[in-house]
């Protein structure tokens, strides 16, 4: 039983560290600077305030040399090897083919592929692969993609708890546990509980969740309808007396303040990029109502009131045909915070951006100047080569199958063998996971699964810098007495509750914290507090480490709590509240299942 004790005031050093924690929270939530830059600032402040933080200049950069940081970096490259060979894509297509038009089988297949794959490779590329697969399956079987995408994200999170390498959070938690308790995680340390958690989540999503997930996007709806483009797309006929005749398309568009998407001559699209307009041409335009009205007042220009411009009108039949595509901005990349104009997005990829969707909100005007966020979805038009370049860029996910990507399928056995070897070597304690993962990187490049130039693009550097910043912050929290003070507050507030109840409270507190800041930051800050609290109440400290680890990796209450949730936010057309409606009952179940599971397998 827990005995309430007297809480001593925090030492001055702890107050300074609390201030840095609060600053880190604010920076990570509001993002006045990119997350990686904020992490560097945190490193600087920890060193500058060494008299209070106890973190020297050398210790402030220790996060870059941490085994967790380097292992996470290596795992990004290993995951890229799996992605480049199309392993997950091939598996998903075969399983989905088995599911056919049965919605329950489709959902079970998506959950199975996402969950099991995420146990061995990073869940972000898994979800990136599954988004177009889910969208394609939904369109072929007249199912709303919204019914599939949210379960894919949730399953990938719970699947990440099958092994040590499932998420970066697990690796970081293992590093913190080794420092505090001398007990790092083994490769399959929590596989038993991870399997229970994944199966529980799968059953919930199949039995209850499928009725709670809304069909925000109607089945098989055209993209122009889905993005509400009707009022913004029109056709005009150009007469002989029109001032647009003999002008280049770019000049005419600037004159009329419209965007010319297509020039039709004799009913066929003109193939050149910037042709001269001739009398008798018909122009397919994107324009506001005001711009269209102004255009209709020009002599010789007739707006066709009965024109109904749809997907087929914008997907031209020539060899390098133009297509419509949804493009998702992945979270924590160089695109977030910038504008399309600053990124020169249209020029770089040779596409026209027609609309932007942020959750259920669709923006049609002044898109170029809108500050982008992770999870934003763009409706773009370009030829297949342009869409292919977008698909190959790690900052973007094309949300439907335009053309089958050129995967290195002949190297699938090699890539799987390399990852399997890394797992086996670590599980059998032949070499540490860090050594095995780095050897796997070398093997991926040597065998051609990943090309040398792709290594650096494979790494999510914002995550690496975030780890490097929060690791010394966790050390400062521990050394300053801050963790001990917070633990004393927990113990005093817990009164006479049994240790298993306090364990559940730590799970809940970590879950709520992860909805605000990153899961990695939650682990670094909460594990020292949990270990200290456990020692004060006579509980098993390792159980509290596990509770924090599981809670930080299963954030299902909001779209901002986990990056895969943001990735499906736009393509699914979800509302912010959809996540809470589906995730809150699931999180309540997981609170009970995980707490009891830890008590059963490890004791409290």
Describe the structure.
Its main location: membrane. The chain is an alpha+beta fold and 604 residues long. 58% of the residues lie in helices and 8% in strands. The protein has a five-stranded antiparallel sheet, covered by helices on one side. A hairpin with a 2-residue loop joins strand 7 (352-358) and strand 8. Helix 2 packs parallel to helix 23 (461-479), helix 8 (103-117) packs parallel to helix 10 (146-159) and helix 25 (499-514) packs parallel to helix 27 (541-552). The termini are close together.
Q: Total number of helical segments?
A: 29
What order do the strands of the largest sheet run in, or round the barrel if closed? 3-2-4-1-5
Overall pLDDT score: 84
Instruction: Work out the number of β strands.
Output: 10
Residue windows where pLDDT falls under 50 for at least 5 positions: none
Q: What Rg do the Cα atoms give?
A: 27 Å
Tell me the overall shape.
elongated
Secondary-structure-derived class: alpha+beta
The proportion of residues forming helix, as a percent range, comes to 55-70%
User: In total, how many domains does the architecture comprise?
Assistant: 4
The largest sheet is: 5 strands, antiparallel
Q: How much beta, percentage-wise? A: 5-15%
Distance between the termini: 11 Å
Topology:
Blueprint: H1 12-30, H2 35-48, H3 50-53, H4 57-60, H5 62-65, H6 67-85, H7 87-99, H8 103-117, H9 123-140, H10 146-159, H11 168-181, H12 191-212, H13 223-226, E1 233-238, H14 249-256, E2 259-265, E3 268-269, E4 282-286, H15 289-296, E5 301-303, H16 311-314, E6 322-329, H17 340-343, H18 345-349, E7 352-358, E8 361-363, E9 377-383, H19 384-392, E10 396-398, H20 412-427, H21 433-446, H22 455-458, H23 461-479, H24 482-494, H25 499-514, H26 519-537, H27 541-552, H28 563-569, H29 576-601
Antiparallel strand pairs: 1-4, 1-5, 2-3, 2-4, 6-9, 6-10, 7-8, 7-9
Helix pairs in contact: 1-2, 2-23, 6-11, 6-20, 6-21, 6-23, 7-8, 7-9, 8-9, 8-10, 8-12, 9-10, 9-28, 10-12, 10-28, 11-26, 11-27, 12-29, 20-21, 23-26, 24-26, 25-26, 25-27, 25-29, 26-27, 27-29
